[in-house]
Amino acid sequence: MAKKLPVIIDNRGDNKVLRALQKLLPxxxxxxxxxxxxxxxxxxxxxxxxxxxxxxxxLMGDETTKRT
Length: 68
Description:
It is a single chain. By secondary structure, the protein is of the alpha+beta class. The protein has helices at 17-24, 40-44, 47-50, and strands spanning 30-37, 55-63.
């Protein structure tokens, strides 16, 4: 990676989780996610990035929507 990611990603300005994942995913083979709430729409924003991963694991809380 050309530019180092910030230690804390707080979703302010350009310091967004989406932007960080867009930088990280092209360099990864697998991704593990742990989250309280998972929204498939947010994940689909990264579709071009996670399609090339060998493995994705998601650990999420028990709150879901029909879409999730």
